[in-house]
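Folding Task

Wanted — backbone structure
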Amino acid sequence: MRTEKLESIYIDVEKDICQLNGEEIGSNTSELHLDYENGEWSLQVTQDRILATHSDE
């Protein structure tokens, strides 16, 4: 698992907007876990990836 810098998170439920560091969070994102501990923020992002021996294209 790689660690990236958390700069910003923006969520607007009414407008269906969810951005992480200024970029849209992809539709393959299934979970976000935002934590604040000892003065530090962390965000765990769970994304789904599908691998297959054939292509859907």
Q: What stands out?
A: DSSP finds no helices and five strands in the chain.
